[in-house]
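Section: Multi-chain targets

For targets with more than one molecule, the full set of components is provided together so that the structure can be written out for the assembly as a whole rather than chain by chain. Components appear in the order listed by the source. The example entry contains two components.
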Amino acid sequence: MKLDAKIPDGPIQQKWSNHRFHLKLVNPANKRRYTILVVGTGLAGASASATLGELGYNVLAFSYHESPRRAHSIAAQGGINAPKNYSNDGDSVWRLFHDTVKGGDYRAREGNVYRLAEVSGSIIDQCVAQGVPFARDYAGYLDNRSFGGAQVARTFYARGQTGQQLLLGAYSALVRQMDAGTVKFFDRREMLDLVIIDGQARGIVARNMINGIMESYVADAVVLATGGYSNAFFLSTNAKASNATAIWRAHKKGALFGNPCFTQIHPTCIPESGHYQSKLTLMSESLRNDGRIWVSKKKGDKRPPGEIPESDRDYYLERLYPAFGNLVPRDVASRRAKEMCDQGYGVGSTGQAVHLDFSDSIKRLGRSVIQERYGNLFDMYKQITAEDPYQTPMRIYPAVHYTMGGLWVDYDLMSTIPGLYVIGEANFSDHGANRLGASALMQGLADGYFILPYTIGDYLASTKFRPVKNDHREFKKAETETERMVKKLVSINGKKTVDEFHRELGKIMWDHVGMARSRAGLKKALKLIPELKSRFWKEVKVTGTDLDLNVELEKAGRVADYFELGELMALDALHREESCGGHFREEHQTAEGEAKRNDARFSYVAAWEYRGPKKSAVLRREPLKFEYAKPSQRSYK
Amino acid sequence: MQKSDFYRGTIHSLASSTIMNLTLKIWRQRNRDDAGKFATYQISNVSPDMSFLEMLDVLNVDLIKKGDEPVAFDHDCREGICGSCGLMVDGRAHGPGRGVATCQVHMRSFRDGDVVVIEPWRAGPFPVIKDLIVDRTSFDRIMQAGGYVSVKTGGAPDGNAIPISKHVSDEAFDAAACIGCGACVAACPNSSAMLFVAAKISHLALLPQGGPERKARALRMVEQMDKEGFGNCSNNYACEAECPKEISVAHIARLNREFLKAKLT
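Its structure, encoded as tokens over all components, is:
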């Protein structure tokens, strides 16, 4: 299979506008004759459904939640980037493009990233018009802040709840179309299979999560907007239900999976407190602006932090990186914290944490300044840990929080299956090996509001569709197969719960496919994951029946997919013999312990093709060309 | 999260390592048509650092291992923002503490030997689907009845074209912070959804973007609210007391003004 990204010719500044002109249009009167299924109604899915509905298509939107407003986009805190240059600090589309390609450690497509930067300004306009209450200054204009190490202030924000306000904006656009009758919303439905007829994506099989019945839906095109797969690690900052099932089942039907090993680990999360921990909570990385990170110089030091004198403290980031100190990028800060804990310097009852200390800043600036800057984060920390960060240092530890990898898509956001589009975090497209802060919301909405609605029309206008109904044998076959799988899961009746298996998988992933990866560790993971998977299929216990609301059954299906995806993540990490962005291979580092890219061998997108349960996935390569942003090595010394 | 003093839960022991044993009385209901009843469970080794939902996770592992069905409850982000979780704990929507969703309650708010009663939201327009899960799609139908600005994608002017005073924008935000969990309805003796509806009406009425559709929105949303069977407001203020985002009843006053103005002019 030859991968064609279909990047338009011409100068990068004109690619998108030229391409838009060349896209075929569907006659306005004919749009309602086309049915589009949108699976997932977070930022990407809700904005796409609303916009497609508004254009006149017949849209069916699906969510495993009761309401689109529950999607995990809602939990994003920090903000959304746009190079409006309202701050007059020299920002431009060109600069955002450069920052994003460099931040992604030169593993993203230039053409896609430029387009993302180009449309991002319209997102802000759109959201303001919907009534999103972005932060404003005293003159009444939109306020910006600098975020995630950017040297310009281009981040728009809505207190610490930017994701919530943007999602509610997209949700309001979506309910408006539901009101108008162009979008029909199906709540509590989980897509379990993709149906392909004559080589085209023609529909899905979804389980009705209230009564367990498999339902078939026919369409002319299918859009997956189902988010990322951080929960393969069990503990992550993702919501509990976030899962990879829709993209994984599509992958098994022929959609290639791009860069599965590119995962992002966030350094400032609240650490695990015990074996019962169900998820992790992220705190904005802005905390590192005024907090100093340290551990005791003595291994296993159990003294309370206040009793450890200055001379016994190791401010290891300041020691290792005199220039950047505590403000080194996310991946570096995360990796160093894990290293200190692995060597036995970790703090707290579990030893899996490092201190983030504000006492110097409080002395220097006063408590009120710190409270003004971080009050809500300090409250959140205190609420969860019952410790007061004004009095005692915070304990922090890194956690998985975003996946840059996802289904491979071309410039039109179409996967390798004709008619199957993938948008938002679910695709692999724009962040390369590392995503910059305030870029996830930007990409989700860019795809949904301003890119997919154009490109999907070209496919519909230029494709012939055979009339198909949901009793077609391919639908019946998919229904039978998914039914067989859920019946099998409820019938095993073993001794271990789904969560116990999921935790065990998460531990393998964290230990060997997490922040620092090695050849030996990855090979070990590739042995352990299939073993655990086969035990799962013999020993899992799912009570209740399939024809009922059954939360354990829902989880079981998702975990079954995580075993397979986890294996592919390890395989991808093993093959990529370089360190780049969030992917750090211990064998490939500089003398100072920094990531060492290998552009000569690995300047490509790794897209994996599924070939059946017994065969190993096959690697296809999409070479990356850098004409405008020339690759350089990062240095934070 | 804007309120710096929202951490006002009942705390008996800070970061204590005391392990607790509790008795749980939990509402079990097979489906919409089942009458439902309380079941009693003993749970031991509860750590004060567990979240309330993690405590239920632990109970569920016990139940599954015994071959029973786990207690079904809605939850997702576990950070107090998605609005999925919502349990009546000892008769209080979202349990002890102020300004928190159920997922943000920690077991340090309880004492060894406590009996804890856990129920679903109780309101006609929120029928129980199973155990502690209720159907809140009535909220979506209210939002559908005009809880939006009719702007088309792509038709928006520059974001800075309409200056909005910071004070007004902040007040609109306070209302827009609603997470749609339904605690206001569950806490209200009349099962009124006034605080939920007011939050949206107020958010959009305060902003110039919401101006052109202001009257129609107030009329339609209130009409839909009544149609769904939610009760009226009798100034009980339980909604404000239990709202995880501490949305003020002052927004209900604005809703009343908006509705009257729309009716009379």
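Chain B touches chain A through 88 residues (CB under 8 Å).
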